[in-house]
Design goal:
Layout lengths: L41 H6 L32 H16 L10 H30 L18 H29 L22 H5 L14
Length: about 220
């Protein structure tokens, strides 16, 4: 059974194997409390992501009804577009937070605002990296992707970058969550905002919001 709230950090069971290849302890001990872990929806499983199913634009009133990914009519559209669209909605929702946290100095409120906003920003980077890994597009195979500008295979260059994003950002997410715990404030304190703008409108706030992706090397084209 799963819960919508995850236990911070990671845990797992290690099975030791003897010299003959047999498992030394067949019993699944110690018990792992499954009720602390999120269920993975079919949508997240297909995207390789975490907790983005409810942020599909058609389901979430806090994100633009037409989504974040606009089609200019050229080129083929893969499954990644719908996945990234949900990730962006999750990040926008996560970064729309209440400020300030009552009874604290402005400097402390600024730190809390940073942490509450940066955690979903990092989670989006992890989801995007995991999505690209799951697609197989960065498998280091010289026969798959074209060469990079210096004659290097693009996938072989990109794969370690993507894995580094996952590893470093997950550690930083846990550190920031621990800091919020030490301040005795909740991680989630979000505003509920209904959004009607479409990504077809370049004057909408989402044209500005796209600049946030520069920190993780993503460009979103708005038309």
């Amino acid at each position: 059974m799963c819960n919508v709230q995850s236990l911070p950090g990671m845990s797992g069971r290690i099975k030791l194997i003897g010299s003959d290849g047999s498992v030394l302890n067949e019993a699944d001990t110690p018990e792992i409390p499954n009720d602390y872990y999120d269920c993975v929806s079919p949508f997240d499983r297909s995207c390789g992501t975490f907790n983005t199913n409810q942020f599909q634009s058609s389901r979430n009133p806090q994100c633009p009804k037409d989504g974040f990914i606009c089609n200019d009519g050229f080129g083929s559209i893969g499954e990644m577009a719908s996945c990234v669209d949900a990730m962006n909605c999750a990040m926008l929702t996560g970064m729309t937070v209440v400020y300030p946290d009552g009874g604290r100095t402005s400097r402390m409120n600024d730190v809390i605002l940073f942490l509450r906003s940066m955690i979903p920003h990092h989670q989006n980077a992890v989801n995007m990296a995991k999505n690209l890994l799951a697609s197989g597009e960065v498998d280091c195979n010289p026969t798959v992707l074209e060469e990079g500008p210096n004659g290097d295979n693009a996938a072989c260059l990109l794969e370690p970058i993507v894995r580094s994003i996952i590893n470093t950002h997950n550690v930083q997410i846990q550190d920031m969550q621990d800091l919020l715990d030490s301040f005795y404030v909740p991680e989630l304190k979000q505003c509920n905002v209904t959004v009607e703008e479409s990504c077809a409108d370049p004057r909408s706030l989402f044209g500005v919001f796209a600049a946030l992706f520069a920190g993780i090397g993503v460009v979103v084209g708005l038309t």
